Amino acid sequence: MYDFQYAKLTSVADTVTRRTSDDEASYLAGGMTLIPTLKQRLARPSALLDLSGIADLKGISVANGVLTIGAMTCHADVAASADVRAHIPALASLAVSIGDPQVRNRGTIGGSIANNDPSADYPAAVVGLNATVHTNARAIAADDFFKGLFETALTPGELIVKISFPIPKRAAYAKFPNPASRYAVVGVMVAETLNGIRVAVTGAGACAFRVGDMEAALAKSFSADAIKSIAVPADDLNTDMHATAEYRAHLVGVMARRAVASLAG
Fold first, then answer.
1. Digit-coded pLDDT (tens) for 160-204
2. CB atoms < 10 A from the CB of 34, how many?
3. End-to-end CA distance of the chain
């Protein structure tokens, strides 16, 4: 690693102020991506601003039909939460499928969506459940948040503080995991929200995306057969050592049907 300063602050305001005064500083959440990047000398921040001491960024609550999760809440706490299991069990199921116990106890929901790895699980939940990402400055709708490969709507220094999920009528997440990393080769969140059906995909493209044709078909008939003939074009999907674009396109259909079947059955 390169030399850098380290600061563990206890308030959002102080942390953002520190970051504003040093545009080479980086926020440190769980460190699941940032620390390996530092070890490989692919990043050289002037300072790490550790968010783990900010109590306001942690915790899970439910009010007025919305489940809210603090940005520094780890995956293990999401998976184990009685509130999450009771109100959005698909989100608990997604969280427990992430990585291994070490990753789940260090990685955070805010860090995951801010990093926006194309194979991360949470982006499918944020988009599929029509969540809102709250920062120190504003609220960003799910459909406006993920912009591209490792790219989000966040501006330099903007800090995620919480994510709010409207409680759906029903939802399910189906994932084809990489057997080593547990990252999603393809993961699909299907949700019947108060505003209609949403189908969100992660792992297949540069970032999470919705499948409008499947949403329209499921709105007419909520069954796996209703989307059996819908194919996702492979043109813009990822090809790597784990799967071709064509195979990922195939998996989108398979995972979507599995998610629907688990709800319709």
1. 999 999 999 999 999 999 999 999 999 999 999 999 999 999 999
2. 18
3. 52
Are the beta carbons of 190 and 199 closer than 8 angstroms?
A: yes
Report which of 90, 102, 234 is spatially closest to residue 167, judged by C-alpha positions. 90
- The answer to whether 224 and 257 have CB atoms below 8 angstroms apart is yes
Kindly state the percentage of the chain with pLDDT values over 70: 99
Separation between Cα atoms, residue 246 and residue 231, nearest integer Å: 10
Q: Per-residue confidence at 92, pLDDT binned at 50, 70, 90? A: very high
Contact 163, 68 (CB under 8 A): yes
pLDDT category of residue 1 using cuts at 50, 70 and 90: low
- 68: Cα separation from own chain's centroid: 14
The domains found in the chain, sorted by start residue, are 5-49 (3.30.43.10), 58-264 (3.30.465.10)
pTM value surpassing 0.85: yes
Inform me whether the pLDDT recorded for 2 exceeds 80: no
Cα–Cα distance list, 211 to 4, 128, 134, 143 (Å): 43, 10, 25, 12
Give the angle subtended at the CA of 10 by the CAs of 82 and 132, to the nearest 5°.
50
Sign of the C-alpha dihedral, residues 244, 174, 115, 134? Answer: positive
Nearest CA to 224 out of 190, 175, 184, 176 is that of 190
